Amino acid sequence: MTGILTAIAAILVFGGVVLVHEWGHFILARRNGIRVLEFAIGMGPKLWSKKVNGTEYSIRLLPIGGFNRMLSREEEEQLRQAGEEVPEYEPGPGSYYEDAAPWRRLLVLAAGPAMNVVLGFALLMVLLSGQELLATRQVAQVDPDSQAAASGLQAEDLILEVNGRHCFVYQDIYYELERTANDQADILVRRNGEKVLLENVKFDRITMEDGYSYLDIGFKVYGVEPGLLTTPKAAFQYTIYYAKYIFTSLFDLFTGRVGINNLSGPVGIVSAINEAVMMGWDEVLNMAILISINLGIFNLIPIPGLDGGQIIFTGVEAVLRRPISAKIRNAVNMAGLMALIFLAIFATYQDILRLLF
Question: pTM surpassing 0.70?
Fold first, then answer.
């Protein structure tokens, strides 16, 4: 039964975040007069397709993304040479993708990642609305026997920063403290209306009999009830926190702070969804939020083949005031896509090793 629920949850999560992402590209393309030949969810062979108003809507076999195939002069010429049907359309200044003004193409490119962030925010609104209390960053009480109390942290302190990095929500504080060396950090708080820097605040680490250890921060924070004002504010703050968390994780990966062996692919994500299903649908919703915002942020990385890479191309064309050669663009995009495919295969290999051993 759990396997069936996991499959349903995985399809809903993956399908939902990809659908919203591609819909963002699609709707902005249509609003700017750009013809969309195909709106596809998934990759590989088609499982289902239907043409409506000149656009083919399709679901494909491999659930690893999606795409919008937009009309371009190159695409039209390839169809003619292959003897295939050329879509009928009303010629206009934006009929071809490359004929649209650079700022319009930038809107189309940015719309996909933006919609994933909006989806994450909307799901956070749902998730937080169902909680009894929303944790704040204001300290309610400090364990008098803790190292945190001995280091100067006090009740009523509002925690603003940890080691110079702004904290948006309570989980942000704990995440930054977990990243500190020697379980100590510089903490900026607001105390009695003034900012106070507490240097080298120390925290306790508890080690279990099985060797597992965790940070005991030694303090508790206030909570507020969900409401018309508190819930949207908290959802916005959590959205920023997730985005920051993803950027930090990518930075740790590229700088070597976290080994590339820790990278997860589709298999690892499905495994995480399976664990979330066993813990409850709130955890599945939380997983969907993380995946959606992660997809939005990751796609903005300036790597060829991703939206971020296309944004760079479009920006260069805007500066040069002429299009980049299709041959150059295709070659660079292909190199980027091959690198991403290799990364996905490597991550999947690591996922399988973790499951087996």
Answer: yes
